[in-house]
């Protein structure tokens, strides 16, 4: 299997990646000419061994050759467990070998195979939103008490505070929430399907920060069929079945409704 490296932007053999540095996600992109067609496909990507070591070396130098600090940053970046007891085991080899041992250890030791970074450091850091949520909880309690005491002045005061807190939470959530964006485009002024066709995916938040930007060249025509709905289709809840006849063969196409759009299952029965 070929895997896309987001650092060197090359498709490389799976063996050129460490297992924990590969992820497969399902991506869906709207066809630019029609809002009704959504293309979906699997994307397998990660950072290859060469790029990972290069990146690690760079950070290692940046952090004054502090191995533990560099490793912790890497684990946070790639959502891997940071296990202090494993860091100190192999300290008689150079830092690249130490990194390789560490990756091997967390891959081989069962208790660490599915552990995330946050689980390994034992706690989730409190965010501004967490603090506001605590305030909101307290304000709601105060309002409840004011109602019980029939203290309407206090009730109005706490209601105003609650409204402000809710507004602030909305604003913060908007700023920090990452949403997925995509674009499908042709490079140059002539559009040739599968020749100069690209798809870009990225995430963006309310501050217009962009992360995780990836570009894919569309190698061959995207397997999308535009279906004119005939009278024969059957809709049961969020599932659509379209009977089709091609020559002497009968087929059924199935689609599911996701966010108001019909998405085909990608196979015909
Ligand atoms: Zn690479």
Helix content: 25-40%
User: Roughly how many Å apart are the termini?
Assistant: 26 Å
Q: Main beta sheet: strand number and arrangement?
A: 4 strands, mixed
Rounded mean pLDDT is: 81
- Biggest sheet, spatial arrangement of strands: 2-1-4-3
**What is the H/E string?**
EEEEHHHHHHHEEEEEEE
Coarse morphology: flat
**Low-confidence spans: pLDDT under 50, at least 5 residues?**
222-227
Helix/strand/pairing class, anyone? alpha+beta
- Beta-strand portion reads 25-35%
Count of DSSP strands: 11
Bound small molecules, which ones?
Answer: zinc ion
Notes on the protein architecture:
- It is flat and about 70 Å long.
- Among the domains are: 43 residues; 35 residues.
- The two termini are 26 Å apart.
- Helices cover 35% and strands 29% of the residues.
- β1 and β2 form a beta hairpin.
- About 2% of the residues have low confidence.
- The protein is of the alpha+beta class and 269 residues long.
- The protein binds zinc ion.
- Zinc ion binds next to α1.
